[in-house]
Sequence to fold (254 residues):
Amino acid sequence: MGNVNNMPFLWGSATASYQCEGAWNEDGKGLGEWDFFNHTSNKNINHVDGDVSCDFYHRYEEDIRMMKEGGQNTYRFSLSWSRIIPTGIGEANEEGIDFYNRVIDCCLENGIEPNVTLFHYDLPFTLACKGGWLNNDMAEWFCKYAEICFERFGDRVKIWATVNEPHFYSYCVNMLGNYPPNRSLDVQSYMQFQYNLMRASALAVRAYRQMGYDGIIGAVHDGGVVELDPATEHPDDVFRYADFFANRMILAPA
Fold:
C-alpha cells in the first residue's frame, strides 16, 4: 500500500498462528510450547489442541478471498517463531519462510494490507526449556528472529507488532496459571516476564529503524481499566499502583 501515513481506515480480521494455522509438524516446523502442553499436560482438561485448528496453513487462499468478499482491507496475523526458526535460534526454515511469503502475497493480491505480529504467545519449545521469558537472553534471541522476518517480509509488510499483549500473556502464565508453564501467583516471574518482553520489543523496534524500513512498528497492549471502590483507603496510591500493574508497566517502556 506504500506510505503508511497515507493509509485509509483499516478494517479487517485478526488471528494468531497457533490458534488458526494447524500443520503443527509440517514442512520443517519445530515444536512449539503450546504443542507440547496440549499433547502432554493433564492441565489440558478438555483434551484439545491446535494440530489442525482452522487449517489456515492449507486454506489461507480461501480465507483471504472471503475477507476480500466481505469488504475487509487488512488482516492481522502472527508468525510462528518455531515455523520460521524451528529451535528458536539459528538458521531460518525456508519452507516456513515460503509459507508466509505466500500468505503476504495473497493478501496484497486481494487488496488486503498485511498487519504482522512477531510474537503472539507462540514460543518455540526449545526456548521454553531454556527458561523462556525468564531467561535474560530471550531479548537478543527475539531480536535475531525479528531481523530475519524484517529481511524476508519487510519489503511488503508495512505494519508490524512486536509482542501481542505482553501484560495479558505474563498474567496468564505467571498469575492465573492457565497458560504454560502454568505458574500461579508468581509475582517475581510476572515481573521478569514483563521486563524481558519489553526489552525484546525495544530491541526489535530499534533493529527495524536501523535497517531502514519505512513502516510502523510497536507493541500491542490490552489496556486495563482501573476502578476503585469508593471506600478504598489512600485511593491515589492504590490507583497509581494498579495503573502501573495494568498499564504503565507496558506503556512507559514502550
